[in-house]
Amino acid sequence: MANALPTHRQTARNLHFENNRQLVFYVLFLFSIFNFSYTQEVTPTFKKKVDSLLIAAPKTYSELDDVLREYRNDSTLVRYFDEKSKESHYLYGRAYALNQLGRIYRDISLYPKALELFQEALKISKEAESIEFKVYSLNMISVIYRRTEAVKSALDYSQEALELAETVQEPSIGLKRSINVSLNSIGNIYQMLEQYDLAIEKFEQSMILEKELDNKLGLAINHQNLGDCFEAQGKLEPALQNFRKSLVYNEIIDSEKGKIICNYSIAHVYVHLGKVPEAVNILQNYLTRAESLGDKKIITTIYINLGWSLIHLGDYDAAQSNLEKGLSLAKLYEFNAEIAESNKFLSELWMKRDDYEKAMGYFKESKKYEDRITNSLNLRYVNDMILRYESQMRTNQLERLAEENESVRLKLRKNKTLLIIIGIFLMLLIGILYILYRQNQLNAEKKLLTLEQSMLRSQMNPHFLFNSLNSIKLYIINNEKKNAVHYLNKFSKLVRKILEASSQREISLAEELETVALYMNIENIRFSNEINFTIDVKDGIDPHNIKIPSLILQPFLENALWHGLSSKEGDKNINVEVRNGKNGFIEIVITDNGVGRDVAQKIKDGKVLKRKSVGIDITKERLANFSRDYENYFHVEIIDKFDEHNHSTGTQIIIFIPTI
User: Fold this and answer.
1) Total domains, the chain
2) What does the DSSP 8-state code read for residue 569?
3) Could you tell me the pTM of the whole model?
4) Residue 285 phi/psi, 5° resolution?
5) What would the 3-class secondary structure string for 143-201 be?
6) Which of 19, 422, 423, 536 is 20 to 30 Å from 613 at the Cα level?
7) Whole domain around residue 612: which residue ranges?
8) What is the pLDDT of residues 385-442, one digit of tens each?
9) What are phi and psi of 194, to 5 degrees?
10) CA dihedral defined by 456, 461, 467, 468, rounded to 10 degrees?
11) Do 434 and 511 belong to one domain?
12) Residue 297 contacts residue 332 (beta carbons within 8 Å)
């Protein structure tokens, strides 16, 4: 019981909609009143865009989506476009609009209404004879059936979508994306049926196409699905790696829903790895974000996962509260698998509380729903269908290959010259593609070189060099030879270390700390040695074994000096602290007692000559680029510090350095 998996990784479900229609109609009634739209009227700008689309009448999904993508989550605007398309007999516009409306209803778990809209979109697509829109609608219908656990119907629609898309010899980008959706959906169905090896095969096929399209959303989804499959097989490390890769892609595309799903999946693995407090912390943080998102399925899953985790933590009252909330939502929206799951965990909870009567009651309720789900799935029939489908697909592939081979042989016999011409053309094409590939590589290298050069310029800008040498010159003029030699040695050593570090992609933290110490010594000359600068490396941290991108700390120190401390009276302190963080991170904390960002900005705005800080922007970009080699990602957090009277007491910058 303790190792049971939460609802988002349960075995196959194949339930159609239940008979409790009154609740569904009531929710739909409320939905029709409030309309779940973000605006209450159609703007002139949107009307103008709609009019231009009706005149141009594009026939592909991508052309329509390029114009309407930013509005497609607003049901009022999408309905307006549907009505105008209907008046103009613009079938492609209607197919697009109905699919987007269906997606809006689907994302708030109103599946009957969403299914109705997708089926209407499919009907319009057939009337328009558009393969692209037919495939899109078939895939959306499959998603609805899969989410409502009608496995057989979901698989039928996904297979139909995939077979229809593969009839097109040269598919558009939109159609290629639909092929990926079909593969992903079939993989999800195999996963529900516990056919994990088949599911992994489909997800990996989809991932190849997503990489060709550079579709980061698709890559995020496939890594998430692979993580689910590996976890179901008990392979926790590969599961965790895929969840983290999915999280990186979701961070890049800034998908709130994707980030929530990844984090509660990571939390689930943490429970199995014995990291229960970390799991509870993640789930509690992301519960509020899930509620603001509005996806009832995700909210229900997080409540149940949180309750399950709290059982492991021994906080039974909190576990009961969360499990009961999850059960209530599951019953409200008829999530049968989640009803079974929450009852099972409540049974486990009351067993631990030694109330066996309640435990047995919840256990019986869980078994009732599990039996209902199992009977509805008809696993033997569906698994037989899978085998027939896979066999038929392979047979069809062999037949197509045989036909293509025969066609090639006939063409070779008829016209050998044509084959030679084709060969020459292919060689030229390969040469051109290779040139383009090399050009892309050179552009990438050029971009990286430009970034490194910008970094070096930010470290050794003319103002810093001039002012440093000018300060040393004053020592010479004042006949302070000892100070002049001392600081000249430090200056030359700093320049040498910056030049050496700029030629390396990464250096040890110890070298970086030595470099910034030299930099602060030089800069302190101009502050009449008023800056109290300290470096504190906590026990248990060996800075020689920690690798970081070269020259990343100086821009933050420079910013603290010239924007935080240059205008401050009294003590001027900067502290660099290196400490162990959570989840495999090392934290570098830079704290100053300057005037704060708000005051610094006002002072900057009042100056005629403004000092532009580009070093921090370059450093953030380098950290983002450097993250690709790690499971976690580098990031920076800036905190404004205030006293009890809400007066600024300085700024704190935390740089999170992953170690795995």
Assistant:
1) 3
2) -
3) 0.46
4) -65, -40
5) HHHHHCCCHHHHHHHHHHHHHHHCCCCCCCHHHHHHHHHHHHHHHHHHHHCCCHHHHHH
6) 536
7) 506-658
8) 555 566 566 666 667 777 777 777 777 677 777 778 888 888 888 888 888 888 876 7
9) 65, 25
10) 10
11) no
12) no
